[in-house]
Amino acid sequence: MTNRWQIPDLGIGMGLRSPHTAHILTNQPSVDWFEALSENYMDTGGRPAYTLDRVAERYPVVLHGVSLSIGGTDPLDRDYLRKLKALARRVNARWVSDHLCWTGVSGRNTHDLLPLPYNEETLRHTAERVRQVSDFLGMPLVVENPSSYVEFASSTMTEWDFITRLAEEADCGLLCDVNNIYVSSFNHSFDPAAYVDAMPVDRIVQVHLAGHTNHGTHIIDTHSDYVIDEVWKLYARLCERTGNVATMIEWDADIPDFETVHAEARKAEKYRGAAAKVAYA
Amino acid sequence: MDAVATPEPLKAPGVETVILPSKTLKPIDRVGIYHGMYLLRMIEALDVDYPAVAWHLGEHRFQHLVADYVTHYPSRSYTLNRLGDEMPEFIAAQESLPRRAFLHDLARLELAMTQAFDEEESPAMPSDALTSLGDVDVTRLRFQTIAALRLVAFEYDVNAFFTSFRNDEKASPRRAKTFLIVHRQDYSVYRTPLTKSAHSFLASLRDGLTVGEALDEHVRRFHRTPSQPELFSWFRDWTAAGLFRSITVKD
Fold it and tell me: What ipTM did this prediction achieve?
């Protein structure tokens, strides 16, 4: 099954991380695509910009943000959006994603992905903002399900119901982070398989996988380790519904060498659907 | 950083009316996860921008400095790249901080390096640009400097201290008036010591004065004209370092 926009499966990608950039530029490894963290490249004209431009010359690139604050109550930051759009054009980003969250209030940025209460008011508010961003960017925003450590008393629906309705009402794409589903299911005691089964697969254009840190009482989404078997099983379950969809591993702390991360990402091949990867022009 | 900073105990009256408990954590503990991670994130970001300041202070005192700093200067940007912009002035205002004058200089150096790293790319002019001008009155030349250039003056030799830090060598603050070019060339940031006289002359060029006006300013400040060999070596080194992006001739 393909997504409703016919956005092609890019294959198995990597997050573009500074410890790996010298290796990538020198060796030009066989990687299907790269995901770059938008904010790392929006306000620099130095080596990061040079690196991303060289990578974009050779590989498909997607942009992934952490500061859009799509669920926030501060007005959308037009300066940020202008720079994001310019960056997306510069590197020919196949799509632009960010998280279902808020990051701050009254102009202050916590640089965290703070969870939202899942109710009608938040849904209307967030859907309107997603539509505004998609209109501005000229492409459907791709929204990622977050990992979270709190649940709100004012929530009236599950996260997967909220995301399904948001995607419909805002007509946006989805980035399904399977590790986030697992982390939140542990922290909030729900069935992760039910979440995976409820995702509107025709809107999923990308999948994230990652490792995490289990503290016993709760799990923190640290992106600091290998993907655990339970998350791979959830990924396999999702792939049965989505078919091949662009997939990558996020590894942001205690980052091992490029080959180790790439090998971990390539494990996804085992679970991906049988359909041939769509060649990317 | 390995050690975990201990934030102030979280006080959130009424949190249980907003946040649900989990099977294992009370509402206040669940909010506390975010509370604790906030300070760690700020420490990590500022440790990237101010590694030598952190090295000099040690982990514990640096964490306290960051905790105080972000209380006064919380991030108001979508990027953490700008979080540390006020750190030098904040350090200068911390009367209880030992060796704060030295730390102020060190923070100014590290901020200059960060700024040079991130500045927009402005290609340097060709090395033969000066000679290709032909027969022209050099005093009417105006040099445009690259964006990724910072000229800094210090009361302490923080450049030597920073070099020791980079080499993982023991170092102590040494009081000495020093002058430095911090610039980026081929996507690497360089630190180049120079004399007070050269620093002043280059600053005049950066500020848009012609060579003639810069010479007049130099005479006003130092009561002498730079010698021909001095001027030759300055322009030779600065051109080779790629500090200029273009030359214009004043009408």
Answer: 0.92
